[in-house]
C-alpha cells in the first residue's frame, strides 16, 4: 500500500513545476522529498492527494489510481498541507471533531492512533486554533490528518516555522506512526531532516536529482570536503571563490565547505594562498559529506549522479 509515481509532469503557464517525475514509496516506508522552495514538492502532493490533475503520467496511492479512484484516495489518505490548514476560529477540540465528522468517524474511535500527539495539546482543547504556538498548531494539524486512520500520510513541510525541540518531537512521532503501518511521504527544505527518512528523493526545479537511502547518497559524494575557517568569513568565502583550483565553496555553519579540483590537493597550498590573501587564524580540516553537500553537488550538475572518483 505504497505510492507509485510514473512520468508525472505539470506546468503552470510556462512554469515547469514537475518534469517527468518517477519514483516509488514502499508500503510502510518513511520517504522524504527534499528540496528548496519552488522545487515542486507541493505540486506533487496536490497531485497525489487528487487536488490537482497532472498534465502527463500516472500515479497511484495505496493501490488506487489518482484519476479513476480519487474518491477512494480521499478516504484513505491523510494530508497535512504546508500552510496551516485548520479553522483558526474553532477550538482545538472543535477542529478535531470537524475532521472526524467529515470522514464519518469520531475522536473516540481512533483516539489510540492520535493519543501520543493529542495528549500534548489536550490541555489547550478549548483554545482557538489561531491562538496556538507553531509547534502546537502542527500537532493539531497532524492529529486532524490522522483522525480517520489513513493508510498513507502526506506531510508537506510539516516542520517549517517550528522550533528545534518541536521539530525533534515531530520526527519521533513520525517514527512511531510508521510502526502503526502507515506509509509516510514527507517534504522538507531542511537537509538535516533527510537523515531521519528511510529513503529520500532530492528534488530541484521539478526534477529528481537522486533517490536513495540518506546513507547511500552521502557515501556517493564524489569529493573530499574540507572545513575551512579564518578570522573573516566574508573575505574567506570571496578568496576561496577566487582560488583557481576551487571546485565548490559554500558556507556551512561556522565553516566554509571547500572542495578542490586537483587529485593531489595539499592543505598547505591552500593555507599559503589564504595567508597571502591576508586572512588570519586559518584552519583547514577534512570533514564528512552531508546530505546538503550531496544536494549542492547534484544541483550544480543535475544530469550527473555522483560518480566522480574521490579526490
Ligand atoms: N498556481 C500556480 N501558478 C503558477 N505557478 C505556480 C503555481 N503553483 C506553483 N507554481 C510554481 O511552480 C513551481 C513549483 O511550486 P511548488 O509550490 O510545487 O514548489 P514547492 O517545492 O512546494 O515550494 P514551496 O515550498 O515554495 O511551495 C514554482 O516555480 C512555483 O512558483
Automatic annotation (TrEMBL):
<dbReference type="InterPro" id="IPR003593">
    <property type="entry name" value="AAA+_ATPase"/>
</dbReference>
<dbReference type="GO" id="GO:0016887">
    <property type="term" value="F:ATP hydrolysis activity"/>
</dbReference>
<dbReference type="GO" id="GO:0005524">
    <property type="term" value="F:ATP binding"/>
</dbReference>
<dbReference type="InterPro" id="IPR003439">
    <property type="entry name" value="ABC_transporter-like_ATP-bd"/>
</dbReference>
<keyword id="KW-0067">ATP-binding</keyword>
<keyword id="KW-0547">Nucleotide-binding</keyword>
<dbReference type="InterPro" id="IPR017871">
    <property type="entry name" value="ABC_transporter-like_CS"/>
</dbReference>
<comment type="similarity">
    <text>Belongs to the ABC transporter superfamily.</text>
</comment>
<dbReference type="InterPro" id="IPR050763">
    <property type="entry name" value="ABC_transporter_ATP-binding"/>
</dbReference>
<feature type="domain" description="ABC transporter">
    <location>
        <begin position="3"/>
        <end position="230"/>
    </location>
</feature>
<keyword id="KW-0813">Transport</keyword>
<keyword id="KW-0536">Nodulation</keyword>
<dbReference type="Pfam" id="PF00005">
    <property type="entry name" value="ABC_tran"/>
</dbReference>
<dbReference type="InterPro" id="IPR027417">
    <property type="entry name" value="P-loop_NTPase"/>
</dbReference>
<protein>
    <submittedName>
        <fullName>ABC transporter, ATP-binding/permease protein</fullName>
    </submittedName>
</protein>
Amino acid at each position: 500500500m505504497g505510492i507509485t509515481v510514473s512520468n508525472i509532469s505539470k506546468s503552470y503557464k510556462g512554469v515547469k513545476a514537475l518534469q517527468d517525475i518517477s519514483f516509488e514509496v514502499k508500503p510502510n516506508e518513511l520517504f522524504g522529498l527534499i528540496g528548496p522552495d519552488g522545487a515542486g514538492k507541493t505540486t506533487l502532493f496536490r497531485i497525489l492527494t487528487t487536488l490537482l490533475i497532472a498534465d502527463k503520467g500516472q500515479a497511484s496511492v495505496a493501490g488506487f489510481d489518482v484519476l479513476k479512484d480519487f474518491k477512494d484516495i480521499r478516504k484513505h489518505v491523510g494530508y497535512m498541507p504546508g500552510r496551516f490548514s485548520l479553522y483558526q476560529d474553532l477550538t482545538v477540540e472543535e477542529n478535531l471533531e470537524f475532521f472526524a465528522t467529515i470522514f464519518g468517524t469520531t475522536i473516540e474511535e481512533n483516539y489510540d492512533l492520535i493519543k501520543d500527539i493529542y495528549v500534548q495539546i489536550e490541555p489547550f482543547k478549548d483554545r482557538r486554533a489561531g491562538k496556538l504556538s507553531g509547534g502546537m498548531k502542527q500537532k493539531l494539524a497532524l492529529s486532524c490528518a490522522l483522525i480517520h486512520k489513513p493508510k498513507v500520510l502526506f506531510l508537506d513541510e510539516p516542520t517549517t516555522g517550528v522550533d528545534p525541540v518541536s521539530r525533534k518531537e515531530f520526527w519521533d512521532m513520525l517514527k512511531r506512526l510508521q510502526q502503526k503501518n502507515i506509509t509516510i511521504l514527507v517534504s522538507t527544505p531542511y537537509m538535516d531532516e533527510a537523515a531521519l527518512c528511510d529513503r529520500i528523493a532530492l528534488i530541484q526545479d521539478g526534477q529528481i536529482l537522486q533517490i536513495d537511502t540518506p546513507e547511500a547518497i552521502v557515501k556517493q559524494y564524489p569529493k573530499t570536503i574540507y572545513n575551512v575557517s579564518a578570522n573573516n568569513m566574508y573575505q574567506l568565502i570571496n578568496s576561496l571563490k577566487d582560488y583557481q583550483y576551487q571546485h565548490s565553496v559554500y558556507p556551512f555553519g561556522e565553516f566554509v565547505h571547500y572542495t578542490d579540483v586537483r587529485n593531489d590537493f595539499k592543505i598547505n597550498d591552500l593555507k599559503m594562498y589564504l595567508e597571502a590573501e591576508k586572512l588570519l587564524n586559518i584552519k583547514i580540516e577534512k570533514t564528512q559529506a552531508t546530505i546538503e553537500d550531496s544536494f549542492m553537488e547534484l544541483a550544480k550538475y543535475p544530469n550527473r549522479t555522483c560518480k566522480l572518483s574521490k579526490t
